[in-house]
Write a structure and sequence with these properties.
single chain
Amino acid sequence: MTGSRETICVPNVELLRVTYEPESLMFPSNRKMIKTLSLEVSGTDRFPVIDVARCMSSGVLRFRHPTLEELRFVYAFVKAMSLVHPLLQEDKEGAPKWSKLMYFEPFIETVDVQWPPEIGKFHDLVAVTISHPPGQSYGEKGRSAPTKYAERPREETFVDVRINTNSNLRKCIMCEKEVHVEQAFSCGQCLAVVYCDSHCQKQHWKETHKSMCGLYKAMMEREEELVIKIFVFPCSAEQPCKWLESLGVHQKGMWRRKCNCYSHCPFGLLPVKGGLWDSWGGLDDNEYPRDSPFHNHLRDGISSPILLSGWSEYYSLRSLPLSSPVADILSHPLTVYYILTALNISSKNLLLKGKEVILHYLGPEGELDWLPAFAEISHLLNGSGNIHIVMVGPEVPTNLSGTTSGISSRVRVNLVRGIYQEEATYLPSPHVIVALNCGLDSHMSWGGALELIKSSSVPAFFTEQSEISCGNAKQVFRGAGLHITHPVTPNPFRSPVKMQGTSSNLPSYSNGFILGVNT
């Protein structure tokens, strides 16, 4: 940000400036920009204004309105910065008491920025890379830059690539025939899809895969970026039962929802034996979050919600060993908390003021048996504000519908059985709507819910497990007349455990990606 008196005068060089001016001086295109970015007023009726300053050879400054392309540049940069803002830290030790010194830890992030409708052009997404120190390359972090578009393979290129996995059965994406892993094929170019034989592979290529292979290849190349490497427990659950056995939690506590052994038991009705230790499957005392507050987390002597940027910070605050697998279950409550405190400005402000945030949680399933894990949200609130979660969905057991669970002092959960659009009029008005692992393209019942979300204009956030699911979700949103205002981004609190698809090898993680509308 700069003021007109501080503009650096370099002859014949144009500077793209952002200044604070009264709203009356704002150009219409700036008003659209400010509205889209949800920038707040500074002082008395002061808003950010974008213009271009040029110093003439005579030393005189000339000003002009920015072009649409220049506005798009500013929008992309500011939006990208807002998407990685949890990486911004406050230096409490180095700064004087009367000031706040902000700094960035070294990082590099590539995010997709989606244009608002008024400045959309050609494609609705653009990839923006933000790095610190400036100019840091992907090579310096030991990884390659993400490939947005990959070259399509030649039609005659078919390679018998055997899939290296420990699961027993896969399913052909073409004919849906189950095939043993040793007999399974995959595309020799993208390695993303599974076939039973070369005939199905060639047929699928002609029908659909030829146009998608390059995109799938790019998604497969991003797998290295999606892996959360800090953990030392096995992070691949190709065979869930064996994975749980390796951790010593198979058929125990909340982990019973992580395999099919208890699929006969309705969601929310798993037998409960004892307390928190039993809920976490008998893990050692230091391997799961205890029902206790975080200590020494005051800002200016005042309690406020703890802002988290990812698993490393959370595990450090809770003094959990990186061998603990609890992140796989905590992904759900911490994703909710991250949305409320990092992605949605209005809910964050309510919590900072000590008020209650009402959240509608759509389509709960396994979460109905993981409510003990949601108690961690209360401790992260750190004595500031309350959260009222209303879980609505057809999987809520009839005998639990209408009940309220005070899972902690600051978090309570209402359970409601039914379809959201049919029950919404009887529920308290929400500040935020959330649907995790929603599978928008897989369930026809989303149509009515999306129509209601559109008419209510309530901020709504969704998570999907893979990039291809996100692409399908975008089409569903467009069909419902909804514009994506929070573009698809990797969720810092996604489960670190890679999921195995029956017909696909694409990177897939529980709560892997976040996108939002009405934000």
